[in-house]
Amino acid sequence: MDIAKSSIGVFISKIGIAAVGFIGTLIAARIAGATALGIYFLFYAVFHLTSLFTDLGVSGAGGKRVSEEKERGNFLTATLISKIILFSLVAIILILFKGKIVDYIGNEDVFPFLLLVLFLEVVRTSLRSGLIGEKKVARSSFLGVIQNGGRVLTWAILLFLGFGVMALVSGLFIGLLLSVIVGFFILSINFKKPQLRHFKSIFSFSKYSWIGSLRGPIVGWMDSLVLGFFVLPKFVGYYEVCWSLAGIFLFVGDAIGMSLFPNFSSLASRGKISKLEDILEEALIFSGIIVIPGIIGAVILGTSILNIYGKEFSIGYIVLVVLVSSKFFQSYEVVFSNVINGLDRPDLMFKVNSVLISLNITLNIFLIYVFGWIGASFASLVSLIIASGMSFNYAQELITVNFPRKEIGFEFFSVALMGFFVYVFNSLLFPLNVFEILILVGSGGIIYFSCLFFLSERIKNIVIRVSKNLI
Fold first, then answer.
1. What is the pLDDT of residue 207?
2. Among 4, 89, 406, 422, whose Cα sits 20 to 30 Å from the Cα of 27?
3. What pLDDT was estimated at residue 1?
């Protein structure tokens, strides 16, 4: 099954990204410290916020039109040109407000890099739209491995040379540059001169999907942006370490969602709705298969894991548990969202994203002001619970959603057994070192999946089938 292959390819890429990212954040935390890490994450948050306005739904619309397999080169070129025009306008505004931006980040030297990485992001996301439209979803995710590998390698070299925050920012630039270069090589589509109708077609989709382009950066970085106004940079550093750890557990749902979009778009355009519904049911079985044990793991092992970054990072235990819990809802929401977009209903996703974004912004400001930096994690949790419910209801209106309750029930039962084992040994060995954490996580994973395969013949057969197709 192409979707299974794409999903596994994306998942493997994301494991690589997570591994490299973990090493990079660990190096930065150990050498540069929480304050320098916090300044970098504020820079990164500003970068992501401004990147919203260089996209405005154009990337999603371009990927949609390319996936329809007609005039791909024209649509891809129209996508890139549209984003370059938006970048030019954003760059002018950034230069005009340079002083306020520098004051917020806390470092004047990083500002030129903001413009450089924004331009590279414009090119990278345009190439990614083309690759996703070509159904090269796994390869598009591989660009993330290249980007993070270049970033972390640069960090390792420059941090040891004592460049501090500039090492972190330079790493982001080098990583993006490498991903753009590789992206040009693996893209098969040739750029062709677009006509006015190509721009109009992209606009007809992006006029609804533009708010969807806001959701990723806002859900991912609004908390850090608001934290920057209320707390010291070191707390931003603590929070982002917890966020990066929690993000690991979204990999399966995110991989499935990315793979569903171009394939659902193709199936829907050919009227194969029943096939689409069958694929969705299988996708839902695996959406939460990693995040469910992840929640139990965070509850039991969270403090020990955070201690790896340094004793001071253990202050983020509650934040880590809440953020991992939010990924449970997001793992299903991202699947339903890609289904709705694949069925060419950006108007419905406009409603979901409007609620998600407005709620996330409002709750972040209120909860951080009232409860401090911990409030940001609860803002993410509440907004994602509501968004997942909305996207599920809209998907049900479009197609028949057969929710695999039995298989998901087996997942919860299996994780209960795993949790008991991990809790007992954690109690005996606490505090844990890195080696003991890895042994306990690996053993818990074996217990979880062994129990799951024993209980569910369906899950076992799907895994066997997909494995045979991959060999």
1. 63
2. 422
3. 46
Instruction: State yes or no: pLDDT of 253 exceeds 70.
Output: no
Question: Is-contact 14 249, C-beta < 8 A?
Answer: no
Count the residues in the chain: 471
Burial of 271: CB neighbours in 10 Å, binned 0-12, 13-18, 19+: exposed
What pLDDT, on a 0 to 100 scale, did the predictor assign at position 112? Answer: 92
Residues 102 and 112: beta-carbon distance below 8 Å:
no
- pLDDT tens-digit profile of 450-469? 999 999 888 888 777 666 65
The 10s digit of each residue's pLDDT in 277-315 is 777 887 888 888 889 999 999 999 999 999 888 888 889
Dig out the tokens for 108 from the structure: 């004047």
In tens, the pLDDT along 34-84 reads: 888 888 988 988 998 888 888 877 777 776 677 665 777 787 888 888 889
DSSP 273-310: HHHHHHHHHHHHHHHTTTHHHHHHHHHHHHHHHHHTT-
Q: Which of 406, 133, 419 is nearest to 285 (CA)?
A: 406
Helix axes 2-31, 273-287, angle to 10 degrees: 30
CA distance readout (Å), 222 to 16, 94, 140, 226 = 26, 18, 25, 6
Beta strands in 133-201 (DSSP E): none
Coarse DSSP helix, strand, coil percentages of the chain, rounded to the nearest 5 percent:
90, 0, 10
* DSSP state at residue 189: P
CB atoms within 10 A of CB 286: 24
Structure tokens that stand for 378 in this block: 């609860």
What angle (nearest 5°) sits at the alpha carbon of residue 398, between those of residues 396 and 399? 70
Number of other residues whose CB lies within 10 A of the CB of residue 416: 13
Q: What gap in Å lies between CA 20 and CA 24, rounded to an integer?
A: 6
Nearest one of 104, 111, 53, 109 to 82, comparing CA atoms: 53
The answer to whether the predicted template modeling score (pTM) of the entire model surpasses 0.70 is: yes
Give the residue extent of every domain in the chain. 2-403
